[in-house]
Structures are given as structure tokens and as C-alpha cells.
Amino acid sequence: MRKLPLTAYIPTIRGVLRNALRREAVYPFYASFKLTSRCHFGCPFCNVKSNPVPDLPTGDIKKILRNLSRSSVLMVSFEGGEPLLRDDIGELLQYARRCRFYLLFTTSEKNLAKYPLNEYARYIDFLHVSIDEGHDNLELFDQLPWLCVLPLQVSVQTVVTADTIDRLDEKVQRCHENGATIVVIPAAHMDNTGDRFPDIASLERKVRELRIRFPDTIHTPMGYFEAYRKKRCSSATVIIAPDGRLYYPCHILNRKGPDLRTTDLTQWLATREAAIERKLMRACRRNCGWYQYYSINSYTSLRSIREALRPVLAKKRK
What we know:
The chain is of the alpha/beta class. The protein has twelve helices and nine strands. The protein has a single domain (about 5-315), classed as Aldolase class I (TIM Barrel). The radius of gyration is 18 Å and the shape is globular.
């Protein structure tokens, strides 16, 4: 993992201290930016494609990236839809590289070889390739050998439904053999989708078993399952919609806050409006299991950060 300038960590450290003083996650450390609602797929567990909006212009995307770069956010994930469908994706990657955060890029594109990934890899810190039955792209496992020689950290991101838990063994093994890590994500029930959320106890047992069989491969933190049992999601992470507005307090509730093209994220998070939304999140009893909201504390807690990041660091050493 590359080293950012020391000054780049100051807003994040300031956010950590402010959160500790307030005893709540006011300032986030991770942001998912959905660059487009366009997608090749129609996954049964996803509703992004069912709510299409026009892509924002390149200049507007850059405004939001500058906004995030001023904030406590230390990791930004380019997502969609399918971000590779944007004609300006190369320009956006280059721009993001100059910002004050690490960049994660998530794709489910079947034909990755037609894109200049060797060029894009210069600007990406972590590449996540979504492979699962919902995307109907299991053949992407065959592309892991060449993807894993790119100069970045490669992870498979696989969404697990109620009927695919037993197929995890082969997926984890393929990643282990090729030097990739894997993120196991339960299929949270979103509005206007079928409920395919897996039996969480069965999934937890399976992940524990596979961690033993394939060391340093799975970096889904066990803290995710603890958070689910305790019904504790966290606002230490945020999602930005394709129209540039901030989902707040969360994506699942489909509530939107400010337009980040025109509103400073850090300043807005300190407002009474934002505080009311966080209170709504704490009071929510839906317990959706959305991976991002339930796992984030495992990446910010000193107690669990080593366990969560160990596979990534181990692959880097190798």
C-alpha cells in the first residue's frame, strides 16, 4: 500500500478524535461513490439499475472528489453500476490519484481484457472484481492469474445469497491459489428486490472454516457478524448516489442528504440535520446486514483492524 503524504492523514486523525469526543461516528473514513447507474447486469439482489439517472459530467465528479479529499475520508471506492462504462473513467482515475485518499475500484465487467488495466492500475490502490452467481460472471475466476500480476492489490468481491453458501469453498480456493484475497458479502435485502439474505449463522461458520483452510485469503472481518447480532451498523462510512447526493443516514433507507457538488461534507455532518439522520440510523430495527455499514468498525477499531487487514498485508509481503 502506497504512503500518502503525512499531511494527508490529518483530516482523518482529526475525525477520529472528534468521533471519540462525541462518542458517535460523525465523520466517516470510507466512501462508496457510485459513478453511474448503468450496468451490464440485473442482479436479483441489487436495485441500482432500477433507478437510472443520467451520468454526472466529468467536472461535477471532480468537484465531489475534491470535497471528499478535504474530509476525514481516507478510502474512496469507485463503484456503480459499472464504472468502466464511463468514457471518462481514465481521466477520473488520474484525477483521484492526486487526491488525499486511497482509491479502491470495483468492477464486474466480464471482458476486462478489452480495457487498458495496465494503465489504470497506475492510479488504483485496490482492485475489487465482483464475481458471483448474481452477476453471472463466474468465468472471471479464469482471469485471476493475469489480474494478480498487476501492480495493485486484487480482491474478489462475492455476494452470497441464501442458496450459494456452499459454493464459497471453490471461490475461496481459486483466490488462494492465484494470490488474490476475497471479500464475502451477504446479499442484503434492498427495496424492490427479492429477499436473498443468507442464514447468517451458517455463513459465519463457513467463513470461520475457510479462514482455517485458506489462511490470509478472506478479509471479511468476523466483526461483521458480531455487529449483525448486536444490530449495530455505523455511519463511519457513506455512500454517494450517481446523482451526486449523499445517501444519509444510509443507502438501504433510501434517504438522501445534500448534493456534494455544492455542499461541503465535513461542514454538513456537523449540522443538526445530519445529527437527526444519525439518530434515525441508531433507532432503525431493520437490521439489513448491509456489509459496508456493519463491517466498517472492524477497520477503525484497534482491537480488530489487524484481523481485518491481515490478508491484504500478507499478500503484499508475498
